[in-house]
Every structure is written in structure tokens, then in C-alpha cells.
Design goal:
Elements (H helix, E strand, L loop, with lengths): L7 H12 L6 H36 L4 H23 L2
Amino acid sequence: MTIVRLTPEQEHIAQAAMATGRYAGPEEVVGAALRLLQAQDAQRAAFRLSLDEARRESDATGYFQMDEIAAELDAIIDAEEAKQRAGASR
């Protein structure tokens, strides 16, 4: 059996959850929290996998990476600002 020590804030959260009648004891509150953590980790892993697949697809189909687009836009803005500075100094 593992003993888990809760901070005062965590204890308050657990007590409030139990006060709703939804949980019979702290074990059920911790169990629910661990299930949520598991679900969140699974969602995060699925999202990362989705991002990796999107990157591979964009590389294969020739779509541009955001870094490339941002660099191109920065260059356009820099060129325009340089033109404006040159025009203002005349």
C-alpha cells in the first residue's frame, strides 16, 4: 500500500470533491485524478503524433514550414522599412 501525502491545497480540493457526494473517499478522488492524468497524457501523445504526421506530409507535398514563411515575411518587411527610411531621408 502506498501512502500519498497531500498539500493543504490538495487536501482542500479532495475534501470539496468528497463533499459533493461524488467520491466516497480520498482514494476515489486520487483515482479520478490519475485517470484524468492518463487521459491528458494520451491526448498529448496523440496530438504530437498528429503534428509529426502533418510535418511529414508537408515535407512530402512541398508545403512550406512556418519558419520559412516567417523568414520570408521578415525580409519583405525589412526591405519595405529600408525603402521608407531611404525615401524619408531625401
